[in-house]
Write a structure and sequence with these properties.
The protein has 270 residues and is of the alpha/beta class. The protein has two domains: 6-192, Spore Coat Polysaccharide Biosynthesis Protein SpsA, Chain A (Alpha-Beta Complex); 203-268, no CATH class. The chain contains eleven helices and eight strands. The chain has an eight-stranded mixed β-sheet, with helices on both faces. Helix 8 runs parallel beside helix 11 (252-268). It starts with 5 loop residues before the first strand and ends with a helix.
Length: 270
């Protein structure tokens, strides 16, 4: 029997969290055939794979040395039976039993290629209503849009064009832009936001993530170069996503993110 929706969860050494992530998926209210759960395990050295199997997930092994975000998603999607593939990080936790149904509902529109959640729009303003991102919008802000951290994509489109496996990050934005350029849409719905918070990670982790994503973005975002203003000017002026400019300027984690973004873009340009 074909699953109504397949969920692909990427994990590495997530024994403390994978059980909660998968149980929240099992608790989702869906009409129709049973949910398919797939875990792509990236060389875990703890009980991640064992716990995933205990929750009824099919576990696919991806060696650490072979990992990229795109490769992990492609491996999981190649085993998915559903017409829509939901993608989750193992540390992303849905907030209520209707989350997956809300996500799936957007795919009743054949023009929708992918969907995910966000609290803010591309300009950093609070997002109160769903937004249909088109190609022109994505070109203006290529770093904002669809996320494989907690979202879904149309399997038929993935079969026609898989995620790029050579990118260190932003494989989701690149794939989305490919289809937006062909007149599809990406739905960003604030009701699809999940518990997936990296804002309190270590400064080094934030720096590395920002660098990786900026490097990936520069590889396809029309050769994005570092911002023309200096780092100090950027730190002073770009205070998006904070309740006040003062809070933004006092955040050492924001400083780490800005440094990582600039470093990633410079690395991409040699």
């Amino acid at each position: 029997m074909t699953a109504q929706v397949s969920v692909v969860v990427r994990a590495r050494d997530e024994a403390e969290r994978i059980g909660r992530c998968l149980q929240l998926m099992r608790d989702q209210r869906l009409d129709g055939p049973e949910l398919q759960l797939i875990v792509v395990d990236n060389g875990s050295r703890d009980r991640t794979a064992e716990i995933a199997r205990e929750h009824g997930a099919e576990v696919l092994a991806l060696p650490r040395e072979s990992f990229s975000f795109g490769r992990a998603l492609n491996l999981g999607a190649s085993h998915a039976a559903g017409a829509v593939v939901a993608a989750l990080s193992a540390d992303a936790f849905v907030t209520d039993p209707a989350w997956l149904a809300r996500l799936m509902a957007w795919f009743a529109d054949p023009q929708v290629a992918c969907a995910s959640g966000d609290r803010y729009d591309a300009a950093g303003r609070p997002l109160s209503e769903p937004l249909r991102q088109d190609h022109a919008m994505a070109q203006r802000c290529p770093g904002w849009g669809y996320s494989n951290g907690a979202g879904a994509f149309r399997a038929e489109l993935w079969r026609r064009r898989a995620f790029r496996e050579d990118l260190p990050g932003c494989e989701d934005k690149e794939w989305s832009q490919h289809w937006l350029a062909r007149d599809y849409r990406c739905l960003i719905d604030p009701r699809l936001v999940v518990e997936h918070d990296h804002t309190h990670d270590s400064v080094l982790s934030i720096y590395r993530r920002a660098r990786r994503e900026a490097e990936g973005l520069a590889a396809f975002g029309d050769g994005l170069a570092p911002p023309p203003q200096g780092l100090l000017a950027q730190w002073w002026s770009d205070t998006r996503f904070y309740s006040s400019p003062l809070r933004a300027r006092l955040s050492h984690r924001r400083a780490a993110r800005l440094l990582g973004e600039r470093s990633g873009r410079r690395r991409a340009h040699g």
